Amino acid sequence: MPAGSAALLEGLSRDLIAMPGGPGDHDALLRLIGPARFALLGEASHGTREFYRERAAITRRLIVEKGSTAVAVEADWPDAWRVNRYVRGLSDDADATAALSGFERFPSWMWRNTEIRDFVEWLRGHNDGRPAAQQVGFYGIDLY
């Protein structure tokens, strides 16, 4: 083992949280977020399905358990606004795939992927029947 590796591993082991794939994987993270009004979630790479899947799972919990009312993503504003209209039941798009079809500036693996599609459908179902003031929005933060 290279010099310093043991100390590095020891330091990391104090801060890393095991996530074996169970329903409680994100409990520690949600405790750390506490009553914060904003939680910023990123990923180490664009297009890695595991990051998209975990981010969607965490976001669902933030919405259900913490009352989050907005999902703001690193995406073009107009394309995300179309998704926002869909998840709020305000568009003519038949499904999440159609609502996400505006994301053409990036490769399909970035926004038009299974994990995002499934999350958008979940969000539409979550919002269904709720008054507009209690619905969760979907917003893009990139302006071009």
Q: How many domains is the backbone divided into?
A: 1
Q: What structural class do helix, strand and pairing data support? A: mainly alpha
Across the major sheet, the strand order is 1-2
Poorly predicted ranges (pLDDT <50, ≥5 residues)? none
Write the H/E string, N to C.
HHHEHHHHE
Question: For the record, what CATH class applies?
Answer: Alpha Beta
Predict the CATH topology: EreA/ChaN-like, small alpha-beta sandwich
CATH architectural group: 2-Layer Sandwich
The coarse overall form would be globular
Q: What is the name of the CATH superfamily?
A: EreA-like, domain 2
DSSP, total strands: 2
- Sheet bearing the most strands, described? 2 strands, parallel
Please state the average pLDDT score.
90
Helical fraction: 40-55%
Radius of gyration: 17 Å
**Spatial separation of the terminal alpha carbons:** 48 Å
Tally of DSSP helical segments: 7
